[in-house]
Amino acid sequence: MPITKTHFRAFSISCLLACVAGAAATEWITFRSEPGHFTVRYPSTWNRYKDSPDLFEIENFPPSKRLKGVVIPQGGAMIIVLGAPRDTTTIENWIGARGEALSKHEIRTLPQESGACTQLVEVESEGEEGPSTYTHETSFYCSTRTGLYRIELVNWRDDPKQEQLQQIALKMALSLRSW
User: Fold this and answer.
1) pLDDT digits (tens, 9 = 90+) for 81-98
2) 18 domain-assigned
């Protein structure tokens, strides 16, 4: 039987629904930092690496895969959530202090909830880890009524999962609440 446009559309819609259902099936967990005065939600399939009063770090690979020096294995990624240094008063100051950016744009659709980001800026940059070896960094700078925060995704340049990883980091940034 030949495949018609109707068959193809039905197959495409089925695939899309399966992908959405699979993505929605991942449970998200809330992390709360009393000293950092924030909460953030993250995928339960990621592993917490280390926490400190102003730093929360997760990785999408098991601790046994962590490498010395480079840290992230091929195909791995980590997301770090931290508050701004004490002398940083604006997102622009913080971005400027970190150096050159590949791209920068403001996220316009933000949650209208208490403690949520009132300004959210996405900045992409790269870091050289060795000769011709680069990481890609996507940082979401969040300004709330009570402070500044950065949600930073670090993964290898040209990672085929780049967009998916960025969506996870963005969802975490949109979930951040401060007090």
Assistant:
1) 999 999 999 999 999 888
2) no
